[in-house]
Design a protein that fits this description.
97 residues; 3-stranded antiparallel sheet; globular; single chain; alpha+beta
């Protein structure tokens, strides 16, 4: 069982933890599964359309080009919600720690 970490979830969706790799999905679908498809399932706006809120995460690598093992080591560099940077207060543990 992977932790509640979307990057680890993307890795599992792609390599199936080595158990049934043939059932893995392609990198683009893995990104959409934890991005735009997840947002739509919650009724949120997904995509980069003029006038929509900017929610984005800046990573230290391309999640589509990264291998599943690299995804598990990917670090979050910055997060933006509604067009504003979000700072994690000191002492708050995140899933990326």
């Amino acid at each position: 069982m992977e932790p509640l970490d979307p990057l680890a979830g993307m890795a599992v969706a792609r390599d199936r933890c080595g158990m049934v790799p043939a059932q893995g999905i392609d990198p683009g679908d893995a990104l959409r599964l934890f991005g735009s498809w997840a947002a739509r399932s919650l009724g949120a706006t997904a995509g980069f359309e003029p006038g929509t809120p900017a929610h984005l995460t800046i990573l230290d690598r391309d999640p589509v080009a990264a291998s599943p093992s690299e995804l598990r080591r990917t670090r979050v560099c910055a997060t933006w919600v509604d067009g504003e940077p979000v700072a994690v207060p000191a002492g708050i543990r995140t899933w990326n720690d």
